[in-house]
Specification:
By secondary structure, this protein is α+β, with helices and mostly antiparallel strands. The chain has a 6-stranded mixed β-sheet, with helices on both faces.
């Protein structure tokens, strides 16, 4: 248990108990937070950690209290018949810790509940109060702060408040909603889709968003269009002399661009756009060979860009993803450490406001680092655009009344990079606007056939960079320009003659809607007002961990399993998976938090329904027949193709008509796990069906055993195996052997198949009598002598290597660890998170990227030639998210296990009388 007193001094319970004075007890959530706060408080305070949540609804039947197990609602642990009262339990691993906290409370002369100031933190404070049951007369205070600095902590101690029961009610309503949704809907998925699946109030809607985007991509049809790219010459005396322009219009009708086509490839507003084919563009280019051009118009507008607001939770997650390659969960984990150690303010906030002291600190740094000319006359203030934003909270910013520059923090790695991002954004928010000019020039001439052709050139110059000197926001849409992008054009007057230097027909194709990344999914959820920003990281983590979504590069791709789950929910729980309903529930929860709505009434409508609204209970009870096969079947192509994708117990597979026709059994083939749904076309499905996994290719009979040998395609690659006779004992297992990379199911010979089945091959015996074998493993071919393994350079060596060659390999000293340093295969640049050089190296298990601290193996679609710094940074970010590699535990004498005594499960039925305010107690009595 963490206990801090007198700065960082550790005080044991025995020592503290021997003192004459009685300490004030402060309880926070985490040990790191306790350590930092403990350094700011004096002799009279002991700072303890609750180590997160101390109580929750039971997770399984074993934790459910016996007195409610036989209730109709026992599995929910929520009394749906009496005001939706929850039954909480203390997890087994927290019982001893709670006992220690209770003892400390009895010895304290005051209790300060210093959990985070949000709904979750307020609920933890209430649970602590309800579970610890402080003695009558003991002063209990709710201590809140937005940053962990000494002034903020001392001010919080001096200005405590009471627990906000409305916030607790809102958090509890959210928890009960999620329990009802998950525990009632998930069993339907187990029965009709696959066991082990889960549904969630926001999780399922987030999954639907990703599925809907993939559906759009699957319906998408490419449209091709052409235009002309030109380089014009403004003549001597102009800077720049050469400038680019694009074909704009022909006879006053604008030339079609990508945005002029719909998702089916059809031109929108036909007649209002000129759709050029390749032949049209090439003919027009030829017809413009002798054309003289003049400037038709010059339109100049002032350019002004104001600073971006300071970070809130979602904008920090988005920018950390774009700039640093961090996932949302990694961003929040790093930000948590920065907050707990006093470097930034609280990181779960939807506010963009800054305190007066923070504004002053930012302005001081603008003046000091950039000069007075970059400082606006008056401070900038930002109002949050997030509905129901808690303006009492601050934006995410460097902690303190004065800001430390990144170099002054002593931070390194991920914490340094994220702090630097937050610091730059905060300082930039108090700087002057960027100003400049935007110019559009239209240039025209007549083609040989008399058509009037106009080209357009756009430019932007920034005359004063203002805040852009400190911070430029990244963009998700590659077709858009960053705010600091400049394109200079010559200073031309209307009517001025220009000549064309180059004229090139250019072909284009429309692109399907981009898949969501973590950054764009977070933005979409927030724009639709679905869920709370503080939960987005965990939601994305859940849908990734559950297998509903996987990553291809940075893109989020839905698995076919997600299609099946989403279809069932859309057809049988349409309201519960509706974007609009899920967003409206956030309004309801906010109104409960504000004391404007009653929790029990709203939960009753959700569960039992009211008026025209059908409740969740009715939907689950009167579900009717659900055709599980239909839920898991998706047509590929047209009915005439007769091909379907099915979601099976062991993964997705395609099923098509038997090529021999008639009533023959349909042909099946597994679908690769990493094949995105929009790439499963009819052609791809037929390709899979032509060589399906599981289909046997008879090779011949083993010359020694007489057993038939067949080759198959499995989920994990092609292999050969023996076919055992029908009367073989159940314990008998056929021998198998994976094909070498140079072999295929169609071409593997009987001779090679026999060799594969006979592996491992005995090469010979060493002088000391130890057998040396050659075999193929997960990571390639190798020799084995006892426990000593040595890698081989090729699979063919397994069959060819002689005993003398094997002895020569073992005569060489074994390379341990990473072996001798080898030069990198490719240098990519510095990692955006660690700042260290990223290189590609060849390892025993294949090529990998490394920044010197973390290694990440290249994936199947990655090659040394094609890998980029951005892709490498993404692979390294995923590796960091899994944490450091676990070291093997040292073996030694085993300790005798401590005897455990069975502890009775304690359930706390939440009653209003235990809450702190008279208003709430009166309301519930």
């Amino acid at each position: 248990m963490w206990r801090y007193r007198c700065g960082a001094e550790h005080i044991s319970a025995a020592t503290r108990g021997s003192r004459e004075e009685v300490a004030k007890l402060v309880i926070v959530e985490s040990p790191a937070k306790a350590r930092t706060i403990g350094g700011y408080l004096g002799q009279d305070y002991v700072v303890e950690s609750s180590i997160g949540h101390i109580r929750d609804l039971p997770n399984n039947a074993a934790d459910t209290p016996a007195k409610i197990k036989d209730k109709p609602w026992g599995r929910l642990a929520v009394d749906v018949d009496n005001g939706f009262e929850p039954y909480y339990v203390v997890p087994r691993d927290k019982k001893s810790h709670i006992s220690k906290l209770k003892k400390l409370v009895k010895e304290a002369d005051a209790l300060y509940l210093a959990t985070d100031e949000d709904r979750e933190g307020e609920a933890i404070a209430w649970h602590l109060l309800d579970e610890l049951k402080p003695p009558k007369g003991l002063p209990v205070h709710r201590m809140v702060f937005h940053e962990i600095t000494k002034p903020a902590i001392l001010a919080a101690v001096e200005n405590p408040r009471e627990i906000n029961d409305d916030l607790v009610e809102a958090q509890e309503a959210r928890r009960i909603l999620d329990r009802l949704y998950g525990y009632e809907v998930s069993p339907v998925l187990w029965k009709k889709v696959m066991s082990g699946l889960s549904a969630g109030r926001v999780q399922s809607v987030a999954t639907r968003l990703v599925v809907d985007r993939e559906r759009e991509r699957m319906k998408f049809k490419v449209a091709s269009y052409w235009d002309l790219d030109a380089t014009f010459d403004a003549g001597t005396g102009h800077d720049p002399r050469m400038f680019p322009a694009k074909l704009h219009s022909i006879d006053d009708v604008r030339v079609a661009r990508g945005s002029d086509f719909d998702n089916t490839g059809v031109l929108k507003g036909k007649g209002e756009r000129v759709h050029l084919s390749r032949a049209d563009a090439e003919a027009l280019a030829t017809g413009l060979g002798e054309t003289s051009y003049a400037v038709r118009s010059v339109e100049s507008k002032p350019y002004r860009r104001s600073p971006y607001p300071p970070f809130r939770t979602t904008t920090l997650q988005q920018e950390a993803s774009r700039k640093l390659g961090m996932s949302a969960s990694v961003t929040m984990s790093v930000a948590q450490r920065l907050y707990e150690n006093g470097f930034i303010t609280y990181m779960r906030t939807d506010s963009t406001t800054l305190s007066g002291a923070a504004i002053g600190a930012a302005r001081d740094q603008v003046r000091e680092l950039y000069g007075a000319e970059y400082l606006p006359d008056s401070p900038r203030t930002y109002a949050s655009k997030v509905k129901n934003a808690q303006e009492a909270h601050e934006a995410i910013r460097p902690a303190g009344d004065t800001f430390r520059t990144p170099a002054q923090t002593g931070l390194s790695g991920e914490q340094f990079r994220l702090y630097e991002l937050i610091w730059m954004r905060t300082v930039a928010s108090q700087m002057k606007d960027a100003t400049g000019n935007s110019v559009t020039i239209r240039l025209g001439g007549a083609a040989a056939d008399g058509r009037d052709v106009v080209f357009s050139a756009s430019g932007r110059t920034i005359t004063f960079h203002g805040f852009l000197k400190a911070y430029v926001e990244d963009i998700d849409d590659a077709s858009k320009r960053r705010d600091d992008a400049e394109t200079r054009l010559p200073n031309l007057a209307e009517g001025a003659p220009v000549s064309v230097a180059t004229l090139t027909p250019e072909g284009h194709e429309t692109k399907p809607p981009a898949r969501y990344t973590e950054a764009t999914l977070i933005k979409e959820l927030e724009d639709r007002e679905i869920g709370r920003p503080s939960t987005y990281a965990s939601i994305i983590g859940t849908i990734l961990n559950r297998g509903y979504v996987y990553k291809k590069g940075t893109a989020l791709v839905p698995a076919w399993l997600a299609f099946s789950v989403t279809r069932l929910l859309e057809e049988h729980f349409p309201r519960q998976v509706s974007y609009e309903f899920t967003a409206s529930m956030e309004d309801v929860l906010d109104e409960i938090a504000n004391g404007q709505r009653d929790r029990a009434t709203e939960l009753g409508e959700f569960y039992y329904g009211a008026g025209d609204v059908v409740g969740l209970k009715t939907l689950v009870t009167d579900l009717g027949e659900i055709d599980a096969k239909e839920m898991a079947t998706f047509a590929i192509g047209t009915p005439e193709d007769g091909i379907n994708l099915r979601v099976g117990r062991y993964g997705p597979y395609v099923e098509g008509p038997n090529p021999e026709g008639g009533d023959g059994a349909p042909v099946r083939a597994n679908v690769p796990d990493d094949l995105p749904p929009d790439e499963l076309t009819v052609a791809k499905a037929k390709e899979l069906l032509a060589n399906p996994a599981g289909e046997e290719q008879v090779i011949g009979n083993h010359p020694d055993t007489g057993l038939q040998i067949v080759a198959k395609n499995g989920r994990f690659g092609p292999y050969v195996t023996e076919v055992l006779p029908d009367d073989a004992p159940k314990s008998a297992k056929p021998r198998t052997g994976s094909l070498f990379k140079s072999m295929t199911v169609d071409t593997v010979s009987l001779e090679d198949a026999v060799k594969l089945l006979d592996l491992p091959r005995v090469v010979g015996v060493d002088e000391d009598g130890t057998e040396i074998t050659a075999q193929n493993g997960r990571y390639g071919p190798y020799l084995k002598k006892g426990t000593d393994s040595r890698s081989l350079t090729s699979e063919d060596q397994i069959f060819d290597i002689t005993l003398d060659q094997a002895k020569a390999i073992y005569a060489q000293p074994k390379q341990r660890g990473r072996g001798a340093a080898t030069p990198p295969l490719k240098e990519l640049g510095n990692d955006p998170v660690s700042g260290q050089p990223v290189v590609v190296k060849a390892g025993r298990f294949g090529e990998y990227v490394t920044d010197g601290e973390y290694n990440a193996t290249l994936r199947k679609d990655d090659t040394v030639e094609s890998i980029t710094l951005e892709r490498a940074a993404e692979l390294l970010a995923e590796r960091r998210e899994r944490g450091p590699a676990k070291k093997a535990a040292k073996t030694g004498a085993k300790k005798a296990p401590a005897k455990k005594t069975a502890a009775k499960k304690t359930a706390a039925k939440k009653t209003a009388a235990k809450k702190t305010t008279a208003k709430k107690a009166a309301k519930k009595s």
